Amino acid sequence: MATIGLEDLRFYAFHGCFEEERAIGTHFRVDVWLEVDTNSAQQSDNLDDTVSYLSVYQTIKKEMETPSKLLENVSERIGKAVLDLYPTVTSVRVKVSKLNPPLGGQVGAASVCLEKSRN
Predict the structure, then answer these.
(1) Domain coordinates of the chain in residue numbers?
(2) List of residues 6+ apart from 67 with CB closer than 8 A
(3) What pLDDT band is residue 46 in, cutting at 50, 70 and 90?
(4) Region of residue 45 (left: phi > 0; alpha: psi -120 to 50; beta: else)
(5) Which helix (H) or strand (E) holds 35?
(6) How many CB atoms are closer than 10 A to CB 14?
(7) How does DSSP classify residue 15?
(8) pLDDT tens figures, 89-108
(9) 3-state SS assignment for residue 71
(10) What is the pLDDT of residues 25-44, one digit of tens each?
(11) Are 96 and 112 in contact (CB under 8 A)?
């Protein structure tokens, strides 16, 4: 098993509980870590024997384009999509961060991190 990470993916999206957030949008960061059996790819050096980073990125991008009120919902949708679309992924850890959230003070990010597995 190996862990494949895609880190610091940046998106401008329209998630949030406040109507203004969903109207004007804000910046988000997504980090994902995939548990994958890479034994074949380690020997073959063939992309078909592992998970394409590009394909996973496109899956995440698509989910980020669908507005949600809660980061919990966005994280869940990303995790579910990854497990549904990539059968070699045995588990996924997803962290979605809203950068500079409107909390009335100086806050770098508010984040939700969840883990999902096939079992």
Answers:
(1) 2-117
(2) 13, 14, 15, 22
(3) very high
(4) left
(5) strand 26-36
(6) 16
(7) -
(8) 999 999 999 998 888 899 99
(9) helix
(10) 999 999 999 999 999 999 99
(11) yes
- The token duo for 111 is 């984040």
* Token couple for 52: 């394409």
Cβ density class 15-41: b for 16+ within 10 Å, e for less: bbeeeebbeeebebbbbbbbbbebeeb
Domain 2-117 class, CATH top level? alpha beta
Q: Which two tokens stand for residue 24?
A: 């004007």
pTM (whole model) above 0.70 = yes
Question: Is the pLDDT confidence value at 119 over 80?
Answer: no
Alpha-carbon distance of 26 to 108, in angstroms, equals: 13
Residues designated catalytic: 98
CB 61 within 8 A of CB 98: no
- 4: phi then psi, degrees, rounded to nearest 5: -105, 125
Q: Say if residues 35 and 47 touch (Cβ distance below 8 Å).
A: no
